[in-house]
Specification:
The protein has about 325 residues and is an alpha/beta fold. It is built from 13 helices and twelve strands. Strand 7, helix 9 and strand 8 form a beta-alpha-beta unit. Helix 2 packs parallel to helix 13 and helix 6 packs antiparallel against helix 13. It is elongated, with a radius of gyration of 22 Å. About 40% of the residues are buried.
Length: about 325
């Protein structure tokens, strides 16, 4: 009986960051692996030449989408595992209709983003960013006029979207006994009760939260979901955190509110990346900036192919997949 063939598309340089020895061993235990031994991503045309006879494909950042031409060449393909984030444009509906499973390692990234979000809540509430600047840049110490920071414990936290990251953030907040509110049109009351949160409208969330954290996906409905009206509704001293996409935020409206000094923010995503050197955000003391790194840890990256390989092993063993993304969920996913 011929060995199962698995096509691995990530480049050599990317694989140094995402392919652990464990993942490599797991894939090789599933069959004959055809490795990408170059630093070039194949084109869709090249992928169409490579897929005949292949039962599984591992993709990642830079891998081509499965165009109709690629699908036409797939005679044995059962599963595609994306060792990265979004699979929104990876596989057309025709592939799903043929029964090809699409796996996403996004839950691995979501864990890291949720950790970042909890850190942002704690560090901003406690004013750690300000004290760090005082000691390193100003070479000073705490002053009596500084006042004190605030505890996270018991605060009102507004979560925009019960997405993968949103749900993980809610779970991390459990020990802090926060009053967690969620705005998400797709979240049922029963699901909200199961999560231990209150489902509210966007205005109530923005107007009553001590901390607002944005985890909304990029969809037509979420473009500039948060604008001048929403940011003006924030309480004085409120904290806004965005680790999702800048698509959901009217950047000029947020900047205008930040310039008043009455709210604070932690921002990891921007309309233009890298953030321009002359961006006004860089000069605001009430904003903590990071360069789109919320989901990036060593463990996260090394866990991406591991997660895909383990789930492929489940699929080929006839067990339910833990990472499969159904077609009907793509429209509301990041």
């Amino acid at each position: 009986m011929a060995k199962r063939r698995i096509l691995y598309l990530p480049t050599v340089s990317l694989s140094r960051r995402i392919l652990s020895p464990k993942a490599k061993a797991t894939l090789e235990g599933l069959g004959e692996v055809i490795w990408n031994e170059s630093d070039e991503n194949p084109t869709a045309a090249k992928l169409a030449e490579m897929v005949p006879g292949v039962e599984a494909v591992v993709t990642s950042w830079g891998s081509p989408a499965f165009t109709p031409e690629v699908l036409a060449a797939c005679d044995r393909l059962k599963v595609v595992g994306h060792a990265a984030g979004s699979v929104k444009h990876l596989m057309p509906k025709e592939g799903y209709e043929r029964g090809i499973l699409v796996l996403s390692a996004a839950p691995v990234i979501a864990d890291a983003v949720a950790e970042y979000t909890l850190w942002a809540m704690l560090s901003m509430s406690l004013d750690f960013y300000r004290y760090d600047k005082r000691m390193k840049v100003e070479r000073g110490w705490r002053e009596e006029s500084d006042g004190w920071g605030h505890a996270l414990y018991g605060k009102k936290v507004g979560v925009i979207a019960a997405s993968m990251v949103g749900r993980r953030t809610i779970k991390l907040l459990k020990p802090f006994a926060c009053d967690v509110m969620v705005y998400d049109p797709y979240l049922s009351e029963a699901a909200a009760e199961e999560l231990g949160v209150r489902k509210v409208d966007l205005h109530e969330l923005m107007a009553t939260s001590d901390i607002v954290t944005d985890h909304a996906p990029t969809t037509p409905e979420t473009h500039h979901l948060l604008g001048a009206e929403q940011f003006r509704a924030l309480k004085d001293g409120a904290i806004f955190i965005n680790t999702a996409r800048s698509w959901t935020v009217d950047g000029e409206a947020l900047l205008a509110e930040l310039r008043t000094g009455r709210i604070r923010a932690v921002l990891d995503v921007f309309d233009e990346e890298p953030l321009p050197a002359d961006s006004p955000l860089r000069g605001l003391d009430n904003v903590f900036l990071t360069p789109h790194v919320a989901g990036g840890t060593t463990e996260t990256y090394m866990g991406l192919v591991e997660a895909i390989a383990d789930d492929m092993a489940r699929v080929f063993a006839g067990e339910p997949s833990q990472l499969a993304v159904p077609w009907e969920k793509l429209s509301i996913m990041a």
